[in-house]
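lol forgot to send this yesterday, sorry. struct tokens for the thing we talked abt
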């Protein structure tokens, strides 16, 4: 948790310390509160409040009402093409990464148990790479994202049914501090 909060707090602190605007036009929408000073005190001193990061902050990653709390892109059998139903999810995570350039993501590609171990490792890597490529095409930096394959080694479901196999064909997105 500390690994996640430190970069956010540091960036908020740095944003609060920057001075790109004037007292009449605050930078970045920050609220500026001018206070009158007594004699001998430095005139023109203002209190600046940093804008809230609640909309794009770390809390959004765990809020079940926020799309960012969803971390799995599901794939069809023997496929590594991102389905249209998961595009809004990928777009939301890409936007989050763009707004939080210090955040890192690990994408774990998974496959169901059908197929050889080697085939499933390769398919899992293609799935992870497909999500990584989509995120970078939407503006995330390549240096923020790593993709690995777990193949069939980390199943979400262990029953030998089609519904269970479908749960195991996925790319899981994990943020710093979660892996």
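and heres what i got for the seq, position by position
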């Amino acid at each position: 948790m500390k690994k996640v909060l430190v970069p956010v707090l540091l960036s908020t602190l740095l944003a609060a310390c920057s001075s790109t605007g004037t007292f009449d036009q605050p930078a970045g929408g920050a609220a500026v509160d001018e206070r009158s000073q007594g004699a001998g005190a430095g005139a023109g001193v203002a209190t600046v409040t940093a804008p809230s990061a609640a909309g794009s902050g770390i809390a959004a990653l765990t809020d079940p009402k926020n799309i960012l709390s969803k971390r799995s892109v599901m794939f069809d059998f023997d496929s590594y093409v991102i389905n249209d139903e998961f595009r809004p999810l990928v777009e939301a995570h890409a936007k989050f990464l763009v707004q939080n350039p210090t955040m890192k993501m690990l994408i774990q590609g998974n496959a169901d148990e059908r197929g050889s171990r080697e085939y499933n490792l390769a398919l899992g890597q293609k799935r992870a790479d497909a999500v990584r490529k989509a995120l970078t095409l939407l503006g995330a930096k390549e240096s923020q994202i790593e993709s690995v394959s777990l193949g069939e080694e980390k199943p979400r479901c262990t029953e030998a049914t089609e519904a269970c196999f479908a749960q195991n064909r996925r790319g899981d997105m994990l943020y710093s501090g979660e892996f």
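Residues 4-55 have pLDDT under 50 and may be disordered. anyway ping me if u want another try
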